[in-house]
Design goal:
The chain has 261 residues and is mostly beta strands. 4% of the residues lie in helices and 67% in strands. It contains two helices and 18 strands.
Length: 261
Amino acid sequence: PGHYRVHDGMITTCELPHPKWQFNAGKIVVDAGSNATIYNSVFRIRGLPVFYLPFATHPIDRQARQSGFLLPNIGHSSIKGTILGDSFYWAINHHMDATVGLNYYSQRGWAPVGEFRARPSEHSFADLNVFSVLDRKSNSGADITLNAEDDFSEDFRAVIKAEYLSSYAFRLTFYDLFAQAANSEVISRGFVSKNTNGFSFNAGLEQYKNFESSSDSSQVSILHAPSLDVATTDRQLGHSPFYWNVDAAADGLSRSEPTFS
């Protein structure tokens, strides 16, 4: 019971009768609530054969995640050359996972990539992405982004959205989408906030960079650190018809660009 063997079958998680992707296989061994083991299969996207796999597995339980190698990355680019790579997905536990991969660009070199995700609670998460290239043509670099948030309590919250870009030339060279490559800005922000009894206390920092050309020396850099502010809602002064509030802020600011600092 719960164990099936399918000959000349198909497996997909897309809506039938026109799935976006599917495995057509000579034999599929299915254990209900566990995995489907696929032998001699052809992976198809919208009915078109993409590549052949002698062996693959696919989880049957929609709620389960399974560690293993992902579908290989194969392609060609006029800048990168032939692209070959693969990634390993690690289901660490029920609220964490990671993906680590390595691509090879025949004209440029090796490109390590990775992502770490965590959702330790309903109101907190973290997502770390790393894309790097060890370039043989002097454009080696990395683009690292971090998005995280934690609501420690009903009135206390911390948020960070940060990015590290080694150089704008790296982004221009290795990002495929025009909108990504043409984005000359690198913005990082973080803050902690506490709101209680009508009082709001906030502390934060922000760094803004804008590259005017592919040269690192042509960037505009603005740094707000530290940034502190306190505010209150309107409060009645005793039993009088008068109300009072407070709104105060202090901010450290520095700016540099090619003409001045």
